[in-house]
Amino acid sequence: MSDPKSTELMEKIVSLSKRRGFIYPSSEVYGGINGFWDYGPLGAELKRNVKDLWWRSMVHYRDDVVGLEATIIMHPLIWKASGHLDTFSDPMSTCRQCKKLVRSDQAREMVEDADWFQELQRFYQQATQSSPVAVSAESLEKLAQATRKHAPSLALVRAREAVTARLLASAANNGPDWADENQFIRSVSTENAAAGLTHFPCPHCGGELTEPRPFNLMFKTHYGPVESDDNVCYLRPETAQAIFVQFKNVFETSRQKLPFGIAQVGKAFRNEVTPRNFTFRSREFEQMELEFFIKPDEAVAALAGGVASASDGAWQGTPQPDWGWEVWHKYWVEQRVRFYESIGLAREDFVEYWQKPDELAHYARATVDILFRFPFGVQELEGIAARGDFDLTQHQKFSGKSTEVFDEELRSAWAILDEPTRTALRARHESSLKESLLKKGIAGDEATAQAAAASQAYFEKLAKGHYVPHVIEPSAGVDRLILALLCKAYREVVSTDEKGKTETRVVLQFHPRIAPIKVGVFPLLKNKPELVAKALAVRDLLRPHMTVFYDESGAIGRRYARQDEAGTPFGVTIDFDTLGEKPELADTVTLRHRDDGRQERLPIAELLPRLLPLIR
Question: For the domain 517-615, what is the CATH superfamily, name and number?
Answer without folding.
Answer: Anticodon-binding domain (3.40.50.800)
